[in-house]
Write a structure and sequence with these properties.
This is GNAT family N-acetyltransferase. The chain contains 7 helices and 12 strands. It is of the alpha+beta class. The relative contact order is 0.16. The chain has a 12-stranded mixed beta sheet, with helices on both faces. The chain folds into 2 domains: about 5-115, Aminopeptidase, CATH 3.40.630; about 125-275, Aminopeptidase (3-Layer(aba) Sandwich), CATH 3.40.630.30. A hairpin with a 4-residue loop joins strand 2 (about 50-55) and strand 3.
């Protein structure tokens, strides 16, 4: 590989990078306002990234503290065989692991040995979602909220650990921070809806969504079928509930995250047409 040179003026690289990211979001079915809102999130902190080139392509890297660990990030990689240089750079900054975000599945071949830690997925919700026969949806009551919260936090920690992204202690710390950020007023946090799914008079699952999360988007933080009721078709039913909640909240697009290691869920989302917006992969150094 030719020698890498640091780039002081990032204008040429940045223009091409932003267009590649936008193209990935458009290909996944995002509207232009949504694609640009996602781009804004993707380039957060871009002024602090380090950009290098070998004359044939680009590398953009950075490091950040995350849950008590220094993490390296490969933000862009178009230089042939540039991954090794990027990993060396991150290691030289003291990073313990390296993460990469792949937009719309682009670049997966270059990071095939990086385990998948999570995905963001989306789909335009059906205009008039029809709930399966025998399934009803009602708001979760304020009395039910504390028990639901405890179960959600435990499940979230378990998902993070199963994905291999963090240790149990780091996962617990991240969970505390995330729930406090998303639900600062708990059950009464504006824009958030909590639901119970019932069949035959029993609660078989719950849902938690955030309306207006992005332009026209309802984010499904959780669409959970209780373990004792799994394998009965309620998983697909929960996705319909998510679409119903999306339209009920005045949005058009449903979006959610799935953790790596959950192949059953990923298979369900593939079969129900939820496109991968971003895929997060990482490897320990």
């Amino acid at each position: 590989m030719d020698e890498m040179g640091m780039v002081t003026c990032q204008a040429e690289w940045r223009g091409g990078f932003e267009e590649r990211v936008l193209a990935g979001y458009r290909a996944a079915g995002c509207s232009e306002p949504l694609a640009r809102a996602l781009l804004e999130r993707a380039v957060k902190g871009i002024e602090d990234w380090t950009v290098a080139t070998d004359g044939t392509g680009w590398i953009a890297v950075g490091v950040a503290q995350e849950n008590g660990a220094l993490v390296g990030r490969i933000h862009d990689l178009t230089a042939p065989r540039g991954r090794e240089w990027a990993e060396r750079w991150c290691a030289g900054q003291g990073a313990e692991r390296v993460e990469v975000r792949l937009t719309g599945g682009a670049g997966a071949e270059a990071f095939a040995d990086y385990p998948v830690r999570g995905q963001n997925r989306m789909r335009v919700a059906a205009e008039r979602p029809v709930l399966p026969a025998g399934l009803t949806v009602r708001p979760l009551t304020e009395e039910e909220y504390p028990g639901w919260y405890a179960a959600e936090e435990a499940a979230y920690i378990a998902d993070i650990v199963r994905a291999g992204a963090l240790t149990p202690e780091q996962a617990e710390e991240k969970s505390d921070q995330d729930f406090a950020r998303h639900l600062p007023q708990g059950y009464l946090t504006p824009g958030h809806g909590f639901y119970a799914m019932e069949a035959d008079g029993r609660v078989v699952g719950t849902g938690w969504v955030n309306h207006g999360f992005l332009p026209g988007v309802t984010f499904g933080f959780s669409l959970e079928v209780h373990e004792e009721h799994r394998g009965k078709g309620y998983g697909r039913a929960a996705m319909t509930v998510g679409e119903w909640a999306t339209r009920h909240g005045g949005d058009e697009v449903m979006m959610f995250n799935v953790f790596g290691g959950n192949e059953v869920a990923m298979g369900l989302y593939d079969s129900t047409g939820f496109a991968v917006l971003d895929e997060y992969r990482s490897i320990d150094l």
